[in-house]
Specification:
This protein is mainly alpha-helical. The protein has three helices and no strands. The protein has helices at 9-16, 19-42, 49-81. Helix 2 (19-42) packs antiparallel against helix 3 (49-81). The longest helix is centred in the C-terminal third of the chain and has 33 residues, at 49-81.
């Protein structure tokens, strides 16, 4: 039996956390930490830094969920066709 996206954790993790995605994940966490520290250290004057700090992380999460759903749909369609 060959490994599919839905049945193999190794295949799923290799696609969802490919080297480029891993770098983007680390960069989004670094962005979050830096802007959060700036937001907390500056106080009231920088109200925009709080929401800006989570945009890259939420984008990363949304893209990961979209990729996961696409691969699951492709596997389900292949199962329906009998591949």
């Amino acid at each position: 039996m060959h490994s599919t996206y839905r049945t193999s954790l190794r295949v799923r993790l290799s696609l969802l956390f490919a080297p480029v995605r891993l770098v983007l994940c680390v960069a989004s966490f670094a962005w979050f930490v830096v802007l959060s520290v700036l937001y907390l250290s500056r106080g009231q004057g920088s109200d925009l830094l709080g929401p800006l700090s989570v945009i890259p992380f939420l984008t990363f999460v949304a893209r990961t969920v979209a990729t996961d759903m696409r691969h699951r749909r492709e596997d389900a369609a292949a199962d329906d066709r009998g591949d």
